[in-house]
Structure prediction request, 187 residues.
Amino acid sequence: MMYLSDDHVLLDNFHALSNYGVPRNRVGKIYQEAKEVFGYPSGLLLSKFRAYEILGLSRSMVIKLVVCCPPLLVGETNSELVMVLDWLKKIGIEHDWIGNYLSCLKTYESRRMLGAMQFLHKVGYSEEQMHNLFKENPALLLEGLEKKVYAFLRLAFKLGLNKNVFYSSFIEFPLSCQISVQKIFWE
Prediction:
């Protein structure tokens, strides 16, 4: 039987996470989703945290992101997350705003967030409209738009749906719009 204290590298990384402020009851999720983190040489994990802080994220935001998205600690700084943060800044939303809506019970993908932002920009949403849309319904950003919603919107815009009508509907009834679009494809 192996004990935690038998693996000094694993124990050092456990302490690095704990000392940075990651709740001990969340370290298991990081181990499950990004096991490589526990094999890092001394100091590497702290440098990864610092890299995200250099992007303008607060320590509490970095902790929340790492707990919700453990793969962010694997490899280089996540370029898609950097692009999401750049977009947020461009549309007038502070970096740490997103942390208010993250749930440690879910896992988020920066690729989906970026895809939602790029799609809305591509179909003609202004920065102000994107700002208002995400402020009113953060789930559209955090969970991204489902592939079926993308397909429906592409078709609707090709057929002449006015983006302002869709924008108004999403602002007033965000969940209803997403559910009804999905129902169209399932029925």
